[in-house]
Amino acid sequence: MKLKVEERIIVPKEVIVGDPDAKVLIVEYGDYESQETAKIHKVIVEILDTFKGKVKYNFRHFPMTKIHQRSFKAAEAAIGAAQEGKFWEMHNILLQHQRNLGTTSLKEYAREAGVTTKHFLDDLMNSKFGWYVRDDQSQAVDAGVTESPAIFINGERFEGKPTFQHLSDAISSALKSRKKVSQRA
Q1: pLDDT at 11
Q2: Taking the model in full, what pTM does it have?
Q3: Sheet holding 150-153, edge to edge
Q4: Is 94 exposed, middle or buried (0-12, 13-18, 19+ CB in 10 A)?
Q5: Domains identified in the chain, total number
Q6: pLDDT number for residue 62
Q7: In this structure, is residue 3 part of a structural domain?
Q8: Which residue range(s) make up the domain with 45?
Q9: Is the confidence at residue 131, as pLDDT, over 90?
Q10: What pLDDT score was predicted for residue 177?
């Protein structure tokens, strides 16, 4: 009898962009159907460019399923894409097409992102990555998140309007601080 080798799932908290040794970690809990998440994404891209080498960024899922019925499946699709190293490609596509996140569209977006597995749609239909979305939601709730998007800088909740200037000020302050990067949040 052959034992099935358990595959290792790449979970959202492991998908980080930016310098791995950066002093500042930005964690965002977002929802792929949220217009605010899409707006903040543009600011985050600018922040990553401006603070290159000084910040790293992690997107976590907080689908607001009571108002966004397709956001949970979209989050699962992003995690599915992460299994092939295509999380950020899928993430960007989902935010661009947030009004069209049906299952058929998610499969097309995965192909566009470069996902090649033949099991993508089956995994999506069977909610293979659903527990990982729920884990993100649970961690967000534990951190006090009640709506998305929510941003944390080195484990501290960012309060205020997440404009480029406000986030830049908070990051500059974190860079001056002697606090170590917290993986919490």
Answers
A1: 86
A2: 0.90
A3: 16-18, 55-61, 24-30, 150-153, 156-157
A4: buried
A5: 1
A6: 96
A7: no
A8: 12-176
A9: yes
A10: 84
CATH number of residue 128's parent domain: 3.40.30.10
Give every CB contact of residue 8 below 8 A, 6+ residues apart in sequence.
none
Strands (E), 31-80: 55-61
How far, in Å, CA of 111 to CA of 120, rounded? 9
First CA to last CA across the chain, in angstroms? 43
Q: Which of 46, 42, 12 is nearest to 27 (CA)?
A: 12
- The answer to whether residue 6 is domain-embedded is no
Cα distance between residue 155 and residue 145, in whole Å? 13
The answer to whether 33 and 101 are in contact (CB under 8 A) is: yes
Residue 182 lies in a domain: no
Structure tokens at 169: 């000020």
Does 95 fall in a domain? Answer: yes
Instruction: Write out pLDDT tens, residues 93-114.
Output: 999 999 999 999 999 999 999 9
